[in-house]
Write a structure and sequence with these properties.
seven-stranded antiparallel β-sheet, 11 helices
């Protein structure tokens, strides 16, 4: 299968949005704790998965995790191998990589390579494990390379984070590098992180994710790979950076290229909308794009994000930047280096009549999010949240047993029901206030009016099994909690 060029792929994703709109428009809203929940609609059938990549080489943007290792004796290849085998007993190295080849792949001097091995992964995708000595004491652990440019693993700006003081004392980086499966990128990333967590053992102060440019503390790595069997949310695979100039902001991602998506930019965003609203919008658009394989074509079509009136479009960054006035933050002068060029697209409100710049920031969408409105997410994310809600259901049951009926505590549960005349996968998600809740399910009162299920109405009461639960939220005196963070509430409620 011929790999498409980046220009072709950019156009493919752009117009592919039009193909996916009809499916994606019936997703659920981004996570906003009720009450009141936004009116739900039927869930669409699964979208087509992305086309499988050719399995011959690491892509231009491999996923690179660097396990930081303390000073002392060189990390032993056999110790690392034993820890990998503890997670994957059948894992065997394909070969020991020559020092010269490993140094070239990692972008470091030959004498800094301690050892290097190549392992198989799912399909034919290779996984490389390279141990590298630290070069100097400024926080720079190693200069890791993709196929086109070095990636600096510079942890110095993060040394002041609580619990990460030991990062500055790391003497080595044990790099676990692979490409992520295009069809299952979140599961593939979790597997890679699980292997890196196993390598880290008790010695490592943190794991550096070079794609997302962020440190992963041991507690977070353990939570994502050991405590839970559910894949992480897509926002774990990328970071969002904000560049300020007066009252304007340039908000952009790092890390999406490694899952076969363009990096996303918001340019000329008002400062008041550049924090949570912009991050939420970029996360939701990335989630939508992750769900389908668009056909080739260009230019863009609008993405329906919250009804037909709230839409945004994707444009190739070069095309947009060429028409920007001088001085706009995120313009050509702010993009001197490869990480801010390459395969990137701007998320914009498209106005073909506007001159000289038809691309404006999607302010209406950002204002909608900032005011508490929800926007659509992908079927893949809906399924992920449902799996997490059911996995953590025992937490909800325990907390209800302790606090159900108490003043200041409210338990709400979302469940999915097949719409009238629909297939089993055509479901509507409805919110209930729980009046009882245990390991087997819940009983409660419906608080949303169904749109496609005639037998239900707001105020109806009934009992429902855990198997149809897709989300839940606990409103406690200290705030609202969901499946991802109810463990904190569970520990605190013992006090």
């Amino acid at each position: 299968m011929r790999r498409r060029s980046r220009d072709e792929a950019a156009g493919a994703i752009a117009v592919g949005v039009a193909v996916g709109v009809a499916l994606l428009a019936t997703g659920a809203a981004c996570e906003k704790p009720p009450p009141p929940p936004r009116p739900p609609v039927a869930t669409p059938p699964p979208a087509r998965p992305p086309a499988k990549r050719e399995p011959d080489e690491l892509p231009d943007h491999p996923s690179t995790l660097a396990v930081l290792w303390p000073r002392g004796e060189d990390p032993a290849a056999e110790l690392v191998h034993e820890r990998l085998r503890a997670i994957a007993p059948t894992l065997q190295p394909v070969e020991t990589v020559e020092t010269e080849e490993a140094a070239a792949a990692a972008g470091v001097a030959v004498d800094r390579v301690v050892f290097a091995r190549r392992y198989p992964r799912s399909g034919d995708a290779p996984m490389e494990v390279i141990a590298i000595r630290r070069e100097r004491d400024d926080g720079l652990i190693a200069a890791l390379a993709g196929s086109d440019r070095p990636i600096e693993v510079d942890v110095s700006p993060r040394l002041g984070q609580p619990g990460l003081e030991a990062v500055g004392r790391a003497g080595y980086a044990i790099v676990v590098r692979t490409r992520l499966d295009a069809e299952h990128p979140l599961a593939s990333y979790r597997y890679q992180l699980r292997l890196a967590t196993a390598v880290a053992g008790e010695e490592s102060p943190a794991i550096f994710d070079a794609g997302a440019h962020r440190l992963i503390p041991p507690t977070e790595a353990h939570e994502l790979t050991i405590t839970s069997s559910v894949v992480p949310p897509i926002e774990r695979l990328f970071s969002v950076h904000v560049v300020a100039r007066e009252d304007e902001r340039w908000v952009h991602t790092h890390g999406l290229n490694r899952i076969g998506l363009p990096e996303l930019d918001l340019v000329d965003v008002p400062a008041s909308l550049a924090d949570e609203a912009a991050r939420t919008l970029l996360t939701c658009v990335a989630s939508l794009l992750c769900d389908y394989d668009p056909p080739p074509g260009y230019p863009t079509a609008p993405i329906a994000l919250a009804g037909p009136e709230l839409r945004a479009s994707l444009v190739w960054w070069k095309e947009a930047v060429e028409r920007m006035p001088e001085g706009v933050v995120g313009g050509a002068d702010d993009r001197p280096d490869a990480p801010h060029r390459g395969w990137r697209m701007l998320l914009v409100a498209l106005d073909r009549e506007a001159r000289p710049r038809p691309w404006q920031p999607p302010v209406r969408v950002l204002e909608h999010i900032a005011s508490g409105g929800g926007i659509r997410i992908s079927r893949r994310e809906i399924d992920r949240r449902a799996a997490l809600a059911r996995e953590r259901w025992p937490d909800a049951a325990t907390l209800f047993a302790r606090h159900g009926g108490q003043a200041g505590w409210r338990f709400v549960v979302k469940a999915a029901f097949t719409v009238d005349g629909g297939l089993p996968e055509n479901r509507e998600h409805l919110w209930f206030v729980a009046k009882s809740l245990d390991a087997d399910g819940f009983a409660g009162s419906l608080i949303t009016e169904p749109q496609a299920i005639a037998r239900f109405h707001a105020g109806d009461e009934g009992a429902h099994p855990t198997s149809i639960v897709t989300d839940w939220s606990i409103l406690a005196p200290s705030g609202s909690y969901g499946p991802a963070d109810a463990g904190l509430l569970l520990a605190g409620s013992n006090d």
